[in-house]
Amino acid sequence: FYKRRKMAVLEELPDDCGTCRGCGKICTTKCTGCKEVYFCNKVCMRKNWKIHRPECKSFAYKICNSAELGNYMVASRDIKAGETIFVDNPLVVGPSSVTVPVCLACYTPVDGSYKCPKSGWPLCGPLCAKKVEHNPEVIVPAQCEASFEIEDFESPCYLYESIIVLRALLLQKSAPQKYKALMSMQSHIEERRGTPIWDHVQERIVDVMKKTFGIMVFEALCPEYDFSDETIQKIQGIMDTNKKEIRLAYSDVEALYPTSCLMEHSCMPNCKMNYSKNFKITVTAGRNIREGEHLSIMYTHALWGTMARRDHLNISKKFWCACKRCADPTEFGTNFSTILDDGHPMFPEDPLNADSDWVCKETGKRKTAYDVKIELSAIGKEIELLMEKGSIDDMEEFIESKAKVLHKNHYHMVTVKHQLLQMYGRTEGYLIQDMSEEQLERKIQLCKENLEVLKMLDPNMIRLEIYAAASQYELHLPLLQIAKRKWETGKLSTEDFRVALEEPYKCVTSAIDLLSKELNEMLPEGQLMLQAKDTLAQLEGFMKTVGCQM
Fold first, then answer.
1. Closest residue by Cα to residue 237 from 141, 302, 168
2. What is the distance between the alpha carbons of residues 112 and 99, in angstroms, rounded to a whole number?
3. How many CB atoms lie within 10 A of CB 234?
4. At residue 392, does pLDDT exceed 90?
5. Distance, CA of 440 to CA of 433 (rounded, Å)
6. What region does 96 belong to: left with phi over 0, alpha with psi -120 to 50, or beta?
7. How far apart are the first and last CA of the chain?
8. In whole angstroms, what is the distance from residue 479 CA to residue 499 CA?
9. Rounded Cα gap, residues 212 and 150, in angstroms
10. pLDDT per residue over 492-540, tens digit each?
């Protein structure tokens, strides 16, 4: 039994609020059309409608509803590529549910050398401890004088599965309007009830929150709030259905957003999302969007093949994608999912049927979808080992060994090639200054092949800009190295060398252009942006020394 005691202070989060256009009072409700302007109620909105109507129509989107899609967003007017559509603040942010121990303030992996004085959570240091001192995961355990002990800092820790759910649950006290918005989201709770997912959540999240974290103390202290198992299950369902997974440089975080969660999925999306340092989303048009066109983002990985993407969406989001990319067995001519039978292509007879046989028209060979899935899964496990321990030679051997069973542009091959092009020039024995001309040409080939596939899959670089930027950045290294060697050995005049330097220079500037809106240095995109800018400054300095006109 827990001793009843005064409840500690939860951080009071600012609910979204603003000044009512009708009466001037502070309120939290917005126009149901544009979702941008505040009104107390319908009376105030009607009084101000003549003034607000033109402004409301100027907003780039409107929210619609259908039986098939539920709520969704469409362009309320023509939107130009690069135009900001809306900005979205997170309702709740937390570490990934599957993660090694990380700091609960900055989400950097930790080693246990510093711990939160109140709760024992491993953190980066006193500054991060100050940031989380009013967080639910610190306050709740402190109520029962609990202290967490984590011993393994190399493996995923089950305790982190509950963090974002606990933060969401306690919003009903610290930010009621945010909690209301969160609980209005789709949860698929009835479909989940009685399934293995429900049992997993009960064991790994509900029981942990109540028995390990001590949420039962809050149930006693705050009977006016709902900490029931059902509510926790619903929140987890909302998370699984609506969360955004944000990849940081050294870990991942998850977040829920009130507006961007309304955007539907497409494997060829028309909107791009960028994250600020506090995980605020800016949604921009990735290409020109016509009035009435649905606004879409991508819920799954753009560098997965059709079978993998559709399976992931069905499992995690409860729907089968039927977009143009999924319906095209060649994926816009890239052969991104194409397997081979003795060098001849095999495609699914019906790409939108998960059980469709795969057939080779040239050899007549047939394979069941199940057999293809098993084969690709086994290759995927090989790749996981390669990524963890594989050398350059191992990766080259993998590419050669799979050449008769996977198309050269198959997503498994592209994954390995993308890793390989980054290893050449940065791995012991293959440092850029030590590489032979043949090896430098191989790096160039890998970069150019990768860029060609990425451009075909995503011509507007809406989802694949980080991969294209990495390829452009890596491409500048062998181009620069080859030109310098020829110049230093007298095979290239200074005048021709200046011309040759233009190509690596364009590669670096292209990488920077692709990442121009990436301002969060915690994300891989932000880190690559900083690296590319630093390289550009060095390259410009060198080019000036040899007489290039900048």
1. 168
2. 15
3. 20
4. yes
5. 10
6. beta
7. 74
8. 12
9. 13
10. 999 999 999 999 999 999 999 999 988 888 899 999 999 999 999 999 9
Q: In the structure encoding, which two tokens stand for residue 95, read together?
A: 């570490």
> 3-state SS of the chain: helix, strand, coil percent to 5?
45, 15, 40
Q: What is the DSSP letter of 203?
A: I
- The pLDDT tens digits for 49-63 are 877 777 666 689 999
Q: What is the pLDDT averaged over residues 357-383? A: 96
Residue closest to 20 by CA, chosen among 12, 11, 29, 10: 29
Q: Output DSSP code: residue 211.
A: I
As given in the structure block, the two tokens for residue 173 are: 């006290």
Average pLDDT over the chain, rounded to an integer: 91
Task: Report pTM.
Answer: 0.84
DSSP line for 234-271: HHHHHHHHHPEEEE-SSSEEEEE-TTGGGSEE-SS-SE
Element (H or E) spanning 347, and its range?
A: strand 344-348
Spatial contact of 252 and 96, defined as CB atoms under 8 Å apart: yes
Report which secondary-structure segment, H or E, holds 273: strand 271-275
Read off the pLDDT of residues 97-146 as tens digits, 9 standing for 90 and up: 999 999 999 999 999 999 999 899 999 999 999 999 999 999 888 777 77
**Residue 345 contacts residue 338 (beta carbons within 8 Å):** yes
Q: Is the pLDDT of residue 15 over 70?
A: no
DSSP string, 71-120: EEEEESS-B-TT-EEEEE--SEEEE-SS-S-B-TTT--B--SSSB-TTT-
Give CA separation, 338 vs 306, 331, 359, 518, in Å. Answer: 10, 9, 11, 33
How many other β-carbons are positioned within 10 Å of the β-carbon of residue 429? 9
Compute the chain's Rg from CA coordinates.
27
Whole-number Cα distances in Å, 172 to 165, 166, 169, 218: 12, 11, 6, 12
* Amino acid, single-letter form, for residue 348: P
Taking the mean position of all CA atoms in its chain, how far away is CA 389?
Answer: 25
Q: How many angstroms separate the Cα of 50 from the Cα of each of 44, 54, 60, 144?
A: 12, 8, 19, 56
The Cα 358–Cα 340 span in angstroms is 10
